[in-house]
DNA sequence: CGGTGTGAAGTAGTTCACAGCC
DNA sequence: GGCTGTGAACTACTTCACACCG
């Protein structure tokens, strides 16, 4: 999964578990597909399969929202789409700004999945004056100087950061100062934000590293390559978890 | 957090909890930064702050890898960098292919964070013959026809899918058939794969939807807009979780 | 002392299995 | 008969708090 989060750990919003919230968009996507094919109802089993989870989990998840199904029948597709959309807050319009219009920022600006879910790209912002004017995804790129004005004029509360790592914290602070309270961070840095501001992090290289970990396991335990980095100083014993770390790197 | 995962739930790789694995790249990044500033040792407290977690969690995480710290002192930065890299399998070279060179694929191809961690982009693949030859990030884009040959010639075991949703499952199947066993999926679809293949999913719009959920809470419970979608038929009672769902949408 | 390493306690999330309703 | 909704059991993860060691 994409990863990281920074959350007030108390006040778990109105009793819906975080893990459930994270799956609602998945259900919503599956339901939307069914809706487009004019399927009137689904069972938890079918919907779970489409969303890639098991049916007990799905039923438990829905039970936090209310009793929206019909025993012996299943769930009404249109009705559930509406309920989940409302729960997620997608029945309203969310203006977002994207800061940092490099390759990734441009990809985000062009990404159709935003508009289709109540998210509206209110502005594209970049620090490079040379980009100003050049349209990306049919919108003009505006200069960072305008950031505060754009945020307040448009009532933006969600910001996307796709700048280089070095610029991210500073951009974050300006966004927050201007009134943004939710941030989606693509820059490979830990952002620090005041309480009350949510940060979600998407980190491409972290995802690959997690895959590499599992991939390595599949390949079987090969001998580790020689250990180039000695420890602080001579030590007596290093206990590896269960017997790797041959005899190479410590002592 | 980026999201989704598809894992053999048994065989939790050699006893390192999945949640810990997901944080190792974070620690590694923080350690690398310290290493570049030639800091010789860190305490769990300092490192935890840099990685954005609490120190108890960090110490527990490291305890799964082995006893790599020194009581009263902290952790040797270089040594830990090596241990975590090795644990994650980053001491070896991982050739990856990126399939689907649209905006996002191009962004990924240009992303520096891959190369710096043992990941090498072995090929860029796209279905559009018009793209063949046009270099992206200094590499030629190759046609999908070559996919199988590229995978086996380069011994690729990790594939990145950044195609449109409609093409993703088919691409996935070809990758798997050709020998790929780990997939990072950016397409907004649930991929189905045989056992033994890992899929991680990064979904931009899901992350925004999760933010919107929390954002909505902060704004306070406003009246929900009128409910445009009636349920299956007239019903007696709908119990919302604790008293929303005014009187509008059911019955 | 100071800071790691870790059992024990606490909390969150998942799965089971079945009562209850359509 | 079929399928939802949910307590109860279980598993995973986190946090506490302190023994132990450099």
Automatic annotation (TrEMBL), chains A, B:
One of its GO terms (cellular component) is cytoplasm. It is found in: Cytoplasm. InterPro entries: CoA-bd, NAD(P)-bd_dom_sf, Rex_actinobacterial-type, Rex_DNA-bd_C_dom, Tscrpt_rep_Rex, WH-like_DNA-bd_sf, WH_DNA-bd_sf. Residues 89-190 form the CoA-binding domain. NAD(+) binds at residues 100-105. One of its GO terms (molecular function) is DNA-binding transcription factor activity. Keywords: Cytoplasm, DNA-binding, NAD, Repressor, Transcription, Transcription regulation. The gene is rex. SUPFAM superfamilies: NAD(P)-binding Rossmann-fold domains, Winged helix' DNA-binding domain. The lineage of its organism: Bacteria, Bacillati, Actinomycetota, Actinomycetes, Kitasatosporales. This is Redox-sensing transcriptional repressor Rex. It comes from the Bacteria. Residues 217-251 are annotated as: Disordered. GO terms for biological process: negative regulation of DNA-templated transcription; response to redox state. Belongs to the transcriptional regulatory Rex family. The keyword Cytoplasm applies. It holds the Pfam family CoA_binding.
């Amino acid at each position: 999964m994409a990863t990281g989060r920074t959350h007030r750990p108390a006040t778990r919003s109105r009793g819906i578990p975080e893990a459930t919230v994270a799956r609602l968009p998945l259900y919503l996507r599956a339901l939307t597909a069914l809706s487009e094919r004019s399927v009137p109802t689904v069972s938890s089993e079918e919907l779970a399969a489409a969303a890639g989870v098991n049916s007990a989990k799905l039923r438990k998840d829905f039970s936090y929202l209310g009793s929206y199904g019909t025993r012996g029948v299943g769930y009404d597709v249109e009705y559930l789409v509406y309920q989940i959309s409302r729960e997620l807050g997608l029945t309203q319009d969310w203006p977002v700004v994207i800061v940092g219009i490099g390759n990734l920022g441009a990809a985000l600006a062009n990404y159709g999945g935003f508009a289709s879910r109540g998210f509206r790209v209110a502005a594209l912002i970049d620090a490079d004056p040379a980009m100003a004017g050049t349209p990306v995804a049919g919108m003009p790129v505006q200069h960072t100087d305008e950031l505060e004005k754009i945020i307040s004029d448009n009532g933006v509360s969600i910001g996307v950061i796709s700048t280089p790592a070095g610029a991210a914290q500073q951009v974050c602070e300006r966004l927050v100062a201007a009134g943004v309270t939710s941030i989606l961070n693509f820059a490979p840095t830990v952002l620090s934000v005041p309480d009350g501001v949510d940060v979600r992090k998407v980190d491409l290289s972290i995802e690959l590293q997690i895959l590499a970990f599992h991939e390595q396991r599949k390949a079987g335990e090969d001998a580790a390559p020689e250990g180039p980095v000695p420890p602080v100083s001579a030590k007596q014993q290093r206990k590896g978890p269960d017997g790797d770390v041959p005899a190479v790197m410590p002592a």
